[in-house]
Structure formats: C-alpha cells, structure tokens
Amino acid sequence: MNYLTNALDLILGVVFSALVTLFVLRVLAEACRADFHNPVCQFIYRFTNPVLRPLRKVLPTVRRINTAALLVVLVLECLKWLIRAAMAGMMPSPLGLVVVGIADALDFFLLTWIVLVFAWSLLSMFAPDRYHPMVRLVSSLAEPLVRPLRGRMTLGGLDFSPTVVLLGLVLARILVVGPIRDLGLRWFLGG
C-alpha cells in the first residue's frame, strides 16, 4: 500500500469505528436497560433513531436485543471490508465478506465490554460522582457482566471478579473471534 492508501485506510477505520460504537452502545444500553433519561443515552438514541426507526418496523426487538441495530453493525463492518477490498483492487467472495463482518462485529462487542469493565473497575477505585451521566452509563453496562461473580472472587478483601470477567472476554476474542475471522478471511480472499 502507498502512503495515500494507508491514510485513507486510517480515516476509514476511524469513521466506521465511531459509527459502529454508537450502534453497539445502543444495543448494549437497551439490553442492559440503561437509564433512558441519561444525557449520554439520549445522544446515542437521538443519533441512531433515524437509521433504526424504519428498520425496527421490519426487525423487532427480541428479548431486549435490538436486532435492527445488530444488523446495522453487521452492515457497517461488511461495508468497511468491502471498501478496503476495493481500495486494494480485489473483489471478495460474498460469504467471506459476511463471515468477516460477523467476526468483526462480535469482536467489537467484546472489545467494547472489555473497555467498559476496565473503566468501571478503575472508576470504582476513585469514588467519582455516582450521578455523573457517563459513570451511570458505564456502571449500567458493565455491572451485568460482573454481578454474577461479585463476592465469589474475593481474596484478602479485594474483589477479583472484574479481572476474571476481563480474562474471559479476552479469551473469547482469541478462541472464538480469531478462528471465525481466519475462516472468513480465507473465504474472503477466495482460498
């Protein structure tokens, strides 16, 4: 790749990551029943509603999972890979494109949860304002993952449940997403 292509790839990655982050947070906020009146949630809902409103007529929410937002995340990830392939002068196989898109979408969800649980555990050490909108959102999204282990992983007065959750999320990225992405890339490249 030349310098211009590298720069375009960087910009492409940043733009698509920002868009995917909003829709992933929308899925997680609805699934975890985050406070709708939180200003951060209001921003996420306001930004994603124009895209999701027409889709939700066709794709209903299933058990608090916004399937329309999941579809948008998958389409954005596939579109990112399609644009990268076009920049490289390639035509990927459709099946490989979808599998790589699924792998990247799953990886993005896991990475988002890693960041949220890490931020939540870091915030708990500093006793921030519990009513700050960002603190409330991070708590409402990270708490459901840590809650089942809370109090069971205590050693010497320290709760290691966030560490165990983070380890599980990182292992899921390695053992689940890695093989799916490798398979998708093989099909993507036509091999």
Account of the 3D structure:
This protein is mainly alpha-helical and 191 residues long. Helices cover 75% and strands 4% of the residues. The chain has one domain (3-188). It has helices at residues 3-31, 39-56, 67-87, 94-126, 133-146, 161-188, and strands at residues 61-62, 65-66, 154-155, 158-159. The strands form two sheets. It has a two-stranded antiparallel ribbon with strand order 1-2. A two-stranded antiparallel sheet has the order 3-4. It is globular. The protein starts with a helix and ends with a helix. InterPro entries: CCB3/YggT. The chain crosses the membrane at residues 65-83, 95-123, 160-180. Keywords: Membrane, Transmembrane, Transmembrane helix. This is YggT family protein.
Which percent range fits the helix content?
over 70%
* Radius of gyration from CA coordinates: 19 Å
Main sheet: which strands, in order across?
A: 1-2
Query: What's the end-to-end separation, in Å?
Result: 21 Å
Instruction: List low-confidence stretches.
Output: none
Fraction of residues in β-strands: under 5%
Protein name: YggT family protein
Transmembrane segments: 65-83, 95-123, 160-180
InterPro entries: CCB3/YggT
Pfam families: CCB3_YggT
